[in-house]
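Protocol step 4 of 5: obtain the predicted structure for the target chain.
Materials: sequence only (see below). No template structures provided, no constraints applied. The aim of this step is simply to have a reference model before the mutagenesis design in step 5. Sequence pasted as it appears in the construct record:
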Amino acid sequence: MGMTITEKIIAAHSKYETVRPGDIVDITIDARAARDFGGANVVKNLNDFGLKVEDPEKTLFTFDCNPTGSDQKYAVNQHICRQYARSNGIRVYDINAGIGTHLLIEEGYVWPGATAISTDSHANILGAVGAFGQGMGDMDIAAAWNSGRVWFKVPASVKLTLNGSLPEGVTAKDVILNLLRIYGANTLLGHSIELYGEATERMTLDERITIASMATEMGAIIILFPPTGEIIEYCRARARSPFEPVYADMDAQYALTADIDVATFVPMVSRPGEPHDTVGVKELPVTRIDSAFIGSCTNGRLEDMRITASILKGKKVAPGVVLKIVPSTDAVWMQCLEEGLLEIFKNAGALVSNAGCAGCAAGQVGQNGKGEVTISTGNRNFPGKQGQGSVFLASPAVVASSAVAGYITTPDAVPATPLVTDFRTGDSTTAAKEVKSDATEKPSVIMGRVWLIERDNIDTDMIFHNRYLAITDIREMGQYAFDNLEGYRDFASKAQAGDIIIAGKNFGSGSSRQQAVDCFVSLGVQAVIARSFGAIYERNAINAAFPVLTYESFNTIDLKDQDIISVNLVTGEAVNERNGLKTSINPFYDAQYEIYKRGGLLGKK
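Step 4 output (structure tokens):
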């Protein structure tokens, strides 16, 4: 029986000739990156445990979250990383370089068949060139820097074949938004997606990057494209090692296969709050905007800049609308300068910044204020992700057209006279009261009060918002737990040591931030039990020796909010102490239990 692309890449980087879904294997990592977000914590882990860097040539820092250096805490973290890099011979792609995942491709750190990890949850963008990239928490990155390897659970693969030709006006961003409309945020949770078909084969590298960058928003491990001759030639000209591209075997086994007719796709937007809440642009009622953003790892490429310039040329941004444009890398920025695109942007009234992640990372231009309506080419519009306002997601063509029109529209429907909008801002909310807790032992059987939060897709911005990401002291994190989850903003003040959270599907989706685990540890919360977890969140929790378990149903034990429940982490037996009823949930698997017993991934074996 043959293997999929993901299985072949993982097997080639492990000690096994073949691997299958569910196998847990150690794999060699070809490129190991840390950003200014998370980088200081990686350094802290290495220093705290007395660990050294195994191969500086494969190790790098990328400062893309706050390339303006405008935040004092980010500036401190960047300085910590620079000092460590100087002492250990590590390359720093500093604040002028651009988005780290793009640089990994541009600078030849990855190639078809390579493996890479980063503190960026969108490291799976590397699937655009047929590489296996993963976002991981700072503990995983520290371990990989030290040993060159990480453990990984082989995902099941899905094969989607995109047939037909895209209609006029439908872009790569629309392709991924249409796929989100079909599959939502958790139908393909934890799967590796491979894209095939004539529509896929015609896609450029920039288009593939756009689609691959939103695998995380689908709940997928990665979206992989079999590399074309053009992609292979591009990578061979840059790769730091010789390579042979990897393709799936003819008899590879897939958990799901589907044929999709892209001729039915239309220009789409994601409505505020959830990337998968998509609707056709023409189905949307007239929606005025206050601001627009073009950039991010999803749509900051040269093709995106050219499309934007073609729409803005000779036009002006609508009165009352602020348009912000941020290229993905310095190479893209320089090409925009050479082609005269920056002049077009400025003449239209746009603000252009140096390359980086921009508003998505809360550290650069692109943030909006309370009450503000923004249309963005980013990949996430979770509440609070790009500021305190509302964010619609769309393609560069739709965003540029909307900026000129003053409301959300497509290039073929931009009016001669724009709507005039008001720019609205508001004050930020008051920080929650700090709550501290003492560390406790973690037994094999836990008992605690239940917080029954019957919601799916609770993302990491809801758990621990990105405005607190500069915090590195775990004792300070608990006060911000669920600070951005509607209905639970007072969770930190009401939580008690020993509590157990029970939630729905896809808990912890989104960012790779370790703080979304550590904030519960800070409060003394004993465990999170959910129907399923975001892939990065699950491994962050396992690596921190924080119990996370999955369940099918608690219906048989009549579980209610604030009940006391006991759970055997080894056998999976769960007991409602109020009525004595018992059920079974999924227990720890062996690798998880081993890490738990030694107090975390970096603990002594």
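Step 4 remarks: Residues 570 and 588 are 6 Å apart (CA to CA). The domain at 445-597 is CATH 3.20.19.10 (Aconitase; domain 4).
Proceed to step 5.
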